[in-house]
Amino acid sequence: MLGRHRTSCLGMSFVCICSGAVAASETTLDLALILAVDVSSSMAQAEQSLQRSGFIEAFRSPVVHKTIARGALGRIAVAYVEWSGVDEQTVLVPWTVIDGTDAARTFASQLGHKPIQQAGMTSISGVIDFSMRLFCGSRGQAGAAGDRHLG
């Protein structure tokens, strides 16, 4: 049962990764990461709490801090999005540059202060479309491979 629970928890969140960074800013990054988390009615409150706690603890972790620092530039950008239906996506923590322990802990703290909510239906295509727009920023494109910038 525990193994099944762990597997289902892994399947609960959809993570969008983009090498480099995102459109409109001049901040060059090692990675732009959208943590897109399912909060549809198919998620039990205990599962949502476990998910949220895992993300918070990850950004408090010295292992994560060291891994980010070992990147070519030593900085990433992260946004935390909760989603359910086709038009039900909420950015809980907007794009945040993580370039050290303090920034990572601040991101974790911001996330920890947000209430856990539950929404209706489930539409992964809705969050994929939303995430692509979030990556594209105001210019409407993800940019060329290589040096991308945070939007």
UniProtKB/TrEMBL annotation:
Residues 1-24 form the signal peptide. Transmembrane segments: none annotated. InterPro entries: DUF1194 (IPR010607), vWFA_dom_sf (IPR036465). The keyword Signal applies. Keywords: Signal. The keyword tRNA-binding does not apply. This is DUF1194 domain-containing protein. It comes from Microvirga aerilata.
